[in-house]
From TrEMBL:
Membrane as UniProt keyword: no
Coiled coil: 285-312, 555-582
Protein name: Histone-lysine N-methyltransferase NSD3
Keywords noted in UniProt: Chromatin regulator, Chromosome, Coiled coil, Isopeptide bond, Metal-binding, Methyltransferase, Nucleus, Phosphoprotein, Repeat, S-adenosyl-L-methionine, Transcription, Transcription regulation, Transferase, Ubl conjugation, Zinc, Zinc-finger
Length: 669
């Protein structure tokens, strides 16, 4: 921790930091007889591994062998940090490169190589480690972020925009060769230094990557030259001995087969079929032509290797579900009350005197059973073994005794993994308990945000109450594999067990052995995003969170039937309701729709397309009747979407389309 060098005679600190030191760096001539504790562990003021500022408000990483301390605000800046009930796992236990590639499941697995100076870690091997990193030992490195090269003189930028490939007045990145027109990025020309989005996000070049390199007038050529980034250990010894620093890496030039040390400021990635630097040039020499051919060939070789590796990994992963920790009951319910809860979640434990007592008797045929008249079962209370009159014969303790029918995890056609029962199940029978980590709403939103940032699309969250949500993602049981169906054979029920609310899955009908177990997710969508449903049921609505078609159609038919039996005035109103369109005017899909109440307006919408969570109250007019600019009454209407305009803003807003001259706004071709 002092000289940043490996070697022998290392003295480990027996305190919380897990650091090691050379004896000579500590001024010791021999190994200490007693346990050695460093100065920081003695005074209790550890330094934040991110901002390097000491203090007593820092918290330790929850991994026992880590020993890194952080301010909570500092560690939350890293997307690779994982917050748990007992604290957090710092970014050094998650591969930065895999996290950049949105491969969140792979990111935290495998052997890591960690940076000695900052919270960066990579999987060992050329596939993830950033080019230009300096190895200190087999599992310790100094990453390329610690280059001593000043940014003001490091980058050699290209003379064209990376978006439109044209020249002109360009905005140049200070850390890499990227250049852009400000208008192509929809920003104003910034003042001072500026870095592109890839550099801001920490995206790095890797070994075995084909790149374009600029070395002044390399070989008297004005163009960028194709090359491959090499691991320093794989280049000739004389090249390894050339002067270089942290952040520098060797490249192999195609065509000439030379090596040279460069840095990120003179290199940018090669793209498949990239020959733009040679187009229009009449004086290209044979070496450069050969370089282009070799680069294209090598790029295809590496692409084939990468695809083969990915296919093998996909095939291997398809044999079993993604990893999770199997638990028997919801995690916070299975531990003592003094364990730290995730957020504001509190565990409720009832006193025996507060638990309701049913009227069943031990002599009954099936006391507290499915077909009994047990009051607790009717009110969805589980009997307590010390309170129930039926004693050991009580059949209303399925949650506590975990009386689940045998089931197995299966691979479905279009819905990932599912759950199938191995034996027949009666209607109303207990199937499973939905268990996981108990979190509050704030933690739930943080997890969803983190999942979106990492392109995670599978969620296992089930709301019990507003501030009580079960997340079966990291921890759960077989119930987490049950798929959604618009015509399910199971349903969720909230039961009170020993004073606390728990969620059980119960059969809606008789289920034969070998049948997949499903329930309706009743999904609440955040924003306009909708998940397509693949349940295959006849009444499938097409999307999760949209009421099944058959149920909705049946309800409408019943309303029409009742209306016909009533007076003529009521019948006319019913017929008028049928004039509304069957598809949403915003997205064009069917399903459960909200109708506009304005006279003669046939438009209908999904609640999600209106950014509403519940139907509007009272008489409601759709957004087609308000100007998009000022919300005043509209006089000009787009006939393909809800865009409309008032007299002050209609000029030039709509044009006649090729479809019989129907007016359309700029959102349509």
């Amino acid at each position: 921790q002092i000289c940043e060098s490996s070697g022998e005679s290392l003295v480990p600190c027996e305190g919380e930091c897990c650091s090691v030191f050379h004896m000579e760096c500590l001024g010791l001539k021999a190994m200490p007889d007693e346990k050695f504790v460093c100065a920081e562990c003695k005074n209790g003021e550890h330094t934040c591994f991110s901002c390097k500022l000491p203090g007593k408000d820092v918290k330790r990483c929850s991994v026992n062998t880590c020993g890194k301390f952080y301010h909570e605000a500092c560690v939350r800046k890293f997307a690779t940090a994982l917050f748990e009930s007992r604290g957090f796992r710092c970014p050094q236990h998650c591969c930065t490169a895999c996290s950049m590639d949105k491969d969140i499941h792979k990111a935290s697995k495998g052997r890591m190589v960690r940076c000695l100076r900052c919270p960066i870690a990579y999987h060992s091997g050329d596939g993830c480690i950033a080019a230009g990193s300096l190895f200190v030992s087999s599992h310790i490195l100094i990453c390329s972020n610690h280059s001593k090269r000043s940014h003001s003189s490091s980058a050699v930028n290209v003379g064209f925009c990376f978006v439109c490939a044209r020249g002109g007045k360009l905005l140049c990145c200070e850390s890499c060769p990227a250049s852009f027109h400000p208008e192509c990025l929809n920003i104003e020309m910034p003042e001072g230094c500026w870095n592109c989005n890839d550099c801001k996000a920490g995206k790095k070049l890797r070994y075995k990557q084909i790149v374009w390199v600029k070395l002044g007038n390399y070989r008297q050529v004005r163009w960028w030259w194709p090359a491959e980034i090499c691991n320093p250990r794989s280049v000739p010894l004389n090249i390894q001995g050339l002067k270089h620093d942290i952040g520098d890496f060797p490249v192999f030039f195609f065509g000439s087969h030379d090596y040279y040390w460069v840095h990120q400021g003179r290199v940018f990635p090669y793209v498949e079929g990239d020959k733009s630097f040679a187009e229009g040039q009449t004086s290209i020499n044979k070496t450069f032509k050969k370089a282009l051919e070799e680069a294209a060939k090598r790029f295809q070789e590496l692409k084939a290797q990468r695809e083969s590796k990915e296919a093998l990994e996909i095939e291997r992963n398809s044999r079993k579900p993604p990893p999770y920790k199997h638990i028997k009951v919801s995690w916070l319910l299975s531990v003592p009350v003094f364990i730290l809860c995730i957020g504001k979640v509190q565990i409720q434990v009832a006193d025996l005197s507060e638990i309701p007592r049913c009227n069943c008797k031990p002599s009954d045929e099936n006391p507290c059973g499915l077909e009994s008249e047990c009051l607790n079962r009717m009110l969805q209370y589980e009997c307590h073994p010390q309170v129930c009159p039926a004693g050991e014969r009580c059949q209303n303790q399925c949650f506590t005794k975990r009386l689940y029918p045998d089931a197995e995890i299966i691979k479905t056609d279009r819905r990932g993994w599912g759950l199938r029962t191995k034996r027949s199940i009666k209607k109303g029978e207990f199937v499973n308990e939905y268990v996981g980590e108990l979190i509050d709403e704030e933690e739930c939103r943080l997890r969803i945000k983190r999942a979106h940032e990492n392109s995670v699309t599978n969620f296992y969250m089930l709301t019990v109450t507003k501030d009580r949500i079960i997340d079966a993602g990291p921890k759960g049981n077989y119930s987490r594999f049950m798929n959604h169906s618009c015509n399910p054979n199971c349903e969720t029920q909230k039961w009170t067990v020993n004073g606390d609310i728990r969620v059980g899955l119960f059969a809606l009908c008789d289920i034969p052995a070998g049948m997949e177990l499903t329930f309706n997710y009743n999904l609440d969508c955040l924003g306009n995003g909708r998940t397509e449903c693949h349940c295959g049921a006849e009444n499938c609505s097409g999307f999760l969170g949209v009421r099944p078609k058959t149920a909705f159609a049946t309800a409408n038919e019943e309303k029409v039937k009742n209306a016909k039996l009533k007076q003529k005035k009521r019948k006319i109103k019913t017929e008028q309701k049928q004039m509304h369109e069957d598809n949403c005017f915003q997205c064009g899909d069917g399903g459960e729709l909200v109708m506009c109440d304005k006279k003669d307006c046939p438009k209908a919408y999904h609640l999600l397309c209106l950014n509403l969570t519940q139907p509007p109250f009272g008489k409601w007019e759709c957004p087609w009747h308000q100007c998009d600019v000022c919300s005043n009454p509209a006089v000009s209407f787009c006939e393909f979407c809800p865009h409309s305009f008032c007299r002050d803003h209609e000029k030039g807003a709509l044009v006649a389309s090729a479809l019989d001259g129907h007016l359309c706004c700029s959102a349509h071709d």
